[in-house]
């Protein structure tokens, strides 16, 4: 292995993928080893990301990019329909996956964890790489000890494919670890319009807003007698996720097994597995 971490980017044609390519090219400790993207195959990865040409040509074939052992880490920001297969392919080639795509089932995460361990490599699936978003989740999990009644509202652009978002699901999971199931609302409540109360999760509701012009926001609203508490995080630019992605690429080289959730890497630990 070279002194630099050799990184491949899946989804290099997309908006997040291009940001990852920029980050890798500008980080002295990294080397862009490959880029995968169907819509921009044949283009120079640096030029496609708005930087000078870097000499790495985007390919439409992930296995072609990983074959030969010249890649240490695969960063995947693709779509839910391909992320699982991409991750499994990377691990099979001995490449450590850092995945920002959502939609994995608990069974898939467990399977990929076992596969990582069998190959002696680390991996990460993270619904969100934003430090602020991770803190929002942590604060919500702490607040629910005192405010057990809550609802989550998440906002994204109208081109987002999954609802609710991976971030809101992860937030709900962390809250449920503390609170357990608690049925909220009036027992005789009736929805006059299907879906009006949002998606049901362990007794509370998650609402997904999809509108043009929206980037990524989430708020957790807690209610108690005579008061409410709101914990909210707003993202305005994809570049805000890159410090987290950079940390993930570095940390994934240091442990074995698949970690679910970037929060487990924030304090220098990888002790909690999926």
UniProtKB/TrEMBL annotation:
Pathway: Amino-acid biosynthesis; L-lysine biosynthesis via DAP pathway; (S)-tetrahydrodipicolinate from L-aspartate: step 4/4. It catalyses: (S)-2,3,4,5-tetrahydrodipicolinate + NAD(+) + H2O = (2S,4S)-4-hydroxy-2,3,4,5-tetrahydrodipicolinate + NADH + H(+); (S)-2,3,4,5-tetrahydrodipicolinate + NADP(+) + H2O = (2S,4S)-4-hydroxy-2,3,4,5-tetrahydrodipicolinate + NADPH + H(+). It is found in: Cytoplasm. Gene3D superfamilies: Dihydrodipicolinate Reductase, domain 2, NAD(P)-binding Rossmann-like Domain. Residues 5-129 form the Dihydrodipicolinate reductase N-terminal domain. The keyword Zinc does not apply. NAD(+) binds at residues 11-16, 100-102, 126-129. (S)-2,3,4,5-tetrahydrodipicolinate binds at residues 166-167. It holds the Pfam family DapB_C. Belongs to the DapB family. Catalyzes the conversion of 4-hydroxy-tetrahydrodipicolinate (HTPA) to tetrahydrodipicolinate. Homotetramer. HAMAP family: DapB. This is 4-hydroxy-tetrahydrodipicolinate reductase. The lineage of its organism: Bacteria, Bacillati, Bacillota, Bacilli, Bacillales.
């Amino acid at each position: 292995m070279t002194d630099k971490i050799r990184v491949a980017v899946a989804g290099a044609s997309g908006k997040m993928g291009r940001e990852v390519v920029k980050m890798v090219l500008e980080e002295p400790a990294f080397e862009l080893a490959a880029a995968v993207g169907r819509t921009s195959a044949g283009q120079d990865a640096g030029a496609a990301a708005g930087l000078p040409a870097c000499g790495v040509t985007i390919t439409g074939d992930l296995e072609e990019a990983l074959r030969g052992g010249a890649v240490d880490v695969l960063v995947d920001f693709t779509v839910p329909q391909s992320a699982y297969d991409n991750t499994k392919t990377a691990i099979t080639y001995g490449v450590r996956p850092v995945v920002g795509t959502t939609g994995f089932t608990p069974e898939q995460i467990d399977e990929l964890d076992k596969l990582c361990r069998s190959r002696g490599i680390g991996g990460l699936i993270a619904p969100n790489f934003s430090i602020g978003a991770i803190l929002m989740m942590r604060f919500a999990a702490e607040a629910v000890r005192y405010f057990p009644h809550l609802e989550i509202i998440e906002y994204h652009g109208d081109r987002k494919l999954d609802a609710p978002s991976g971030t809101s699901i992860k937030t709900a999971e962390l809250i449920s670890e503390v609170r357990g199931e608690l049925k909220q609302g009036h027992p005789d409540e009736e929805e006059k319009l299907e879906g009006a109360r949002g998606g049901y999760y362990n007794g509370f509701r998650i609402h997904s807003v999809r509108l043009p012009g929206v980037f990524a926001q989430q708020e957790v609203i807690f209610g108690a007698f005579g008061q409410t508490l709101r914990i909210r995080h707003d993202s305005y630019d994809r570049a805000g996720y890159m410090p987290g992605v950079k940390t993930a690429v570095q940390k994934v080289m240091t442990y074995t097994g698949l970690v679910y959730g970037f929060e487990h890497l924030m304090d220098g630990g990888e002790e909690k597995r999926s």
